[in-house]
Amino acid sequence: MLLTSLFLFCVCVFAGAIFDESARKDDEVFRMAVADLNLNNEILETEKITISVEFVDGNNPFQAVQEACELMNRGILALVSSIGCMSAGSLQTLADAMHIPHLFIQKSPAGSPRSACPPTGRVPGTDDYTLMVRPQVYLNEVIMQVVSEYGWQKFVLFYDSNFDIRGIEDFLDRTSQQGLDVSLQKVEANINMMITSLFRTMRTEELHRYRDTLRRAVLFMSPATAKAFISEVVETNLVAFDCHWILINEEISDYDLQDLVMKSIGRLTVIRQTFPMPPNATQRCVKHNHRINGALCDPKNAKSQQLEITNRYIYDSVLLLANTFHKKLEDRKWHSMASLSCIRKTSKPWQGGKSMLDTVKKFGVSGLTSFLEFTDNGTNPNIFFEILGTNYGEDRGRGVSRLATWDPVHGLNGTLSDRKLENNMRGVVLRVVTVLEEPFVMVSENVLGKPKKYQGFSIDVLDALANYLGFKYEIFVAPDHKYGSLQPDGMWNGLMGELVFKRADVGLSAVTITPEREGAVDFTTRYMDYSVGVLLRKAERTVDMFACLAPFDLSLWACIAGTVLLVGILVYLLNWLNPPRLPMGAVSSTTLYNSMWFVYGSFVQQGGEVPYTTLATRMMMGVWWMFALIVISSYTANLAAFLTITRIENSIQSLQDLSRQTDLPYGTVLDSAVYDQVRSKAMNPFERDPMYSQMWRMINRTGDNNVDESKEGIRKVKYGHFGFVWDAAVLEYVAVNDEDCSFYTVASNAPDRGYGIAMQHGSPYRDVFSQRAHIIHIPSSPPPADIFSRRLELPSSIYHHPHTTIIIPPRPPEMPPLSSHHPLLETYPLGGRRSHHPHILMVSWGGLLSGWG
């Protein structure tokens, strides 16, 4: 490794410097500062500064001490070093021993955030000849206050491999005392391999939880590592646009800041060291009796924008030493120094070292770091931080603004807030994925060459939210036309997959909230209750000309006919054996035909024409009439019962009825929410239901019971012998709007889930959507058919009626205000049908004027 020594040679002025071998720009700025001072006759007048520069390995303290001894042997008056803590401790010990003022500028490895150098042991009572040009490290204090202002309770702290983690021990102790949940993770040099290993070793659920933890993160790393890390996590979809990351490092240039903003999504807060400068160009470049090089003091100059913090402190250190030499020459207290030897034990320290050290501490200098001075303990008290930030969003190149400043004396100057979104989403364009499902989402217009237009209940919900919040949206249908389920490989398909893989921001249709889906995406609060129903085909009515004979069996009818014949014959024989007395000239009508007709007439309660006056005949007919009364009454009752049974014998009135019977096959959409619900309640021991167990066995009895799409299930019901188990609201709409009126539905009376709007995991829009969606919550399930028989319009006003909740869209300016006593509210309740449920009626303003929406 190379070692470079720097000397300032003049008649009486000598100095030296040691730089880390990676500090080539420090060397350039050092030479520029010496050149500027050599041109300034007001400071050293006739004296000139001569220099010599060498470099050392920052991790080799022995080499640093060896080269420093060589410099002292040449007769230096001061030592300037830009090096890491490992070699700085050895140089500090040497400077104390030889009484050489040592201006130490701490340099962090590879641009990582600084950590405080460990204290070096010194002999008690001796002076500290090392002056800390860079102020002490305040990163712990700054980040603690910023995190507290944001109100974070849980976050991840990432640090790169070059950062000394001992530097944040105090911060971790304070977060632990305050009960904050902080996770530490080291970012390896090969970031791509690190991210790849995460996807290879983590299951899908673990990746979702990991994504959730990445919503809040603090980065202790160099700008180069931060840019590479942010790019990698954004490209691999590990973070969403609701994330908020804080990058803290004193060394962040404007170029670095622009690149970080371009590569990141979500919100980014950057904390860096800043140097207050006057706005006037002359005041920035002219400091007391010295003019700074224009390339370094002009903020618009490319070289000035690329200056590192150590470069600025090196320039000001040279300027401070030059002013110190000038003061010593003015006071006539100059102590020349012979060469010193670090090897000889008899070598004595420099006699003028103490005086030189006191002069350096006594006076300060204005330069590129605003103002450089030292306290009695040899530290620079002047340090300022600025806190910059962007807003939430996914647009690249978002604007950066200064949020606050921080300094050790005044603390935080400004207000920090981590509020996500208010009710203003203007300028936001959401990507909405949907599945066509009547009446929630339907295609209203499909013109070739133009985007499809959609309508339906869910679209009205989305339009109302868009009008209120101000966002725009682009809608598309899920490629596989499915709601989505977890596949054997751990991936989601359908609508859910579009959200999980962040190809869409919002999922909207008849999407039900299930525990499995909530583990992958976020949902708003339910805006409508959901229950399972079954769609059935009405029994076909047939005309039977002999239906009147159905109450009695054929054998019974034969017995009745035989009885009529037998009684008719008995009546004829009784009258023939004991004929009645007839008036003079009358002819007897007691024939076998008349007896039969008389018995039949009395049976059907129509009477007879033949007079029977004998006692035996009348006793016989009394018994027959009693028999006829019993038979006719039984026939009437059985006929009424038969007609009723004929009307309901093939109907199913509940899911329990459906589960008990085995004649009618039924099924649902494979891998749908209904399918998962039936399976869960049939197989999960914690929520097992006998009804669902029977349904699950029936659904899976054959491979033909389940379908791929709901339309296929509806088609099987219409043209076959099948029952389709599906979303009750959808089935209600299908039944009401069927042209042949061939369907009827049966639904569960106990809804245990609801419809919600699905969003990406950790979406910042969830809360604001939920706040607006809860006002349209429809508790009844399924909704009344009257809702689905007309176009739905979503509300901004809600009026409650004992039987109906009227929801009305925003009032146009030309329309008069609506009174709570509007005739519509008094005249058109939905009353009769399912009046025990609160109903929702959505109307338009045109309908309000005409009396019906």
Describe what this molecule looks like in 3D.
With 853 residues, the chain is α/β, with parallel strands linked by helices. Helix content is 37%, strand content 17%. The strands form nine sheets. It has an eight-stranded mixed β-sheet, with helices on both faces. Helix 2 runs parallel beside helix 3, helix 4 (139-150) packs parallel to helix 5 (169-177) and helix 18 (554-577) packs across helix 19 (592-603).
Short description:
This protein has 853 residues and is an alpha/beta fold.
Number of helices: 29
What is the share of helical residues?
A: 25-40%
Number of extended strands = 33
Give the strand order, joined by hyphens, for the main sheet. Answer: 7-6-8-9-10-15-16-17
**Overall geometry:** rod-shaped
Unreliably modeled segments: 1-10, 777-853
The separation of the N and C termini measures: 87 Å
User: Gyration radius, to the nearest Å?
Assistant: 47 Å
Strand content: 15-25%
Structural class: alpha/beta
How does the major sheet shape up? Answer: 8 strands, mixed
Mean of pLDDT: 79
